[in-house]
Design brief:
By secondary structure, this protein is an all-alpha fold. 77% of the residues lie in helices and 0% in strands.
């Protein structure tokens, strides 16, 4: 086993410092009492109160949450169906084309995706708003869900599913009662990934959003262009806190699930034959 050298420790420390020191500075200056974001004038939570009194930011946050929840749900359903067809469908006519169409948004520039969706919405006469943002986010996040779920389906033990079929279950009942619970962690991970991608998307939302629907990244970007304000620091700190809580919660749930799975396996091995 290779020892953890000083070079590895230094490289790891510098890498994490380069990534997290700007975030720490942002959090510190979010409690600055001065309106000048680079001049420390004392500790204060004044700008958090100003943020929650800013109706424009609150409306943008509400639109972003609604879009992220709905689009990630649609993307999870469609991505799971696509992954199941690709893994379990075998060989069929157009499989290569279908696979390429699913994974194309992974490598396609977001500018092209946003522009093509904008032209589509204009050509069919669909007014830009929350609906168009949901459709756009579902389109580009579905492929990420498909990749996550398909990786789980590839390593899935089909003998359990075949045993359910032998016991009289229909294919749908076997999928609902056996396959879906076993791939549920991958489905949940795909949903969380799609939700996160929708939350922080700026480029595609800029093409598909209308005057009546402004997402939080668009609002932040338009505000930063006029200068970084203390409200932006406060908002970024709140988002960092929410992401941290989500990551810690997901890690604890995953660890608990792994422990429970190992415990179930031990009980199954100890059970009399």
């Amino acid at each position: 086993m290779r020892r953890f050298s000083w070079f590895n420790a230094t490289a790891l420390t510098m890498g994490f410092a380069f990534l997290y020191i700007p975030m720490v500075i942002l959090v510190i200056y979010s409690f600055n009492s001065s309106r000048l974001v680079t001049v420390w004038a004392g500790f204060s939570t004044h700008w958090y109160g100003e943020l929650f009194r800013d109706q424009a930011f609150l409306d943008a946050a509400w639109v972003t949450l609604r879009v992220a929840f709905v689009s990630s749900t649609f993307a999870t359903v469609l991505g799971t169906m696509a992954a199941y067809v690709m893994v379990r469908g075998g060989k069929f006519m157009g499989r290569t084309l279908f696979s390429g169409m699913i994974y194309a948004p992974l490598v396609m520039p977001e500018v092209i995706t946003g522009l093509s969706l904008l032209l589509l919405f204009i050509s069919i006469g669909l007014d830009r708003g929350i609906v168009t943002i949901i459709l756009a986010h579902t389109t580009f996040s579905m492929c990420y869900v498909s990749v996550v779920v398909s990786s789980r389906l590839v390593s899935f033990d089909r003998s359990v599913e075949e045993a359910a079929l032998d016991l009289g279950c229909t294919p749908f009942d076997a999928f609902k009662s056996v396959t879906l619970p076993l791939i549920a962690p991958a489905v949940i991970a795909g949903w969380l990934l799609a939700f996160t991608l929708s939350l922080d998307d700026l480029v595609i939302a800029s093409f598909t959003a209308g005057p009546s629907a402004t997402t939080l990244p668009i609002k932040i970007f338009s505000s930063v262009r006029l200068g970084v304000s203390p409200e932006i620091n406060a908002l970024s700190t709140i988002l960092l806190l929410l992401v941290t809580i989500g990551v810690v919660t997901a890690s604890l749930v995953s660890k608990r699930r792994i422990i429970q799975q190992k415990r179930d396996e031990q009980l199954a091995e100890q059970a009399p034959q």
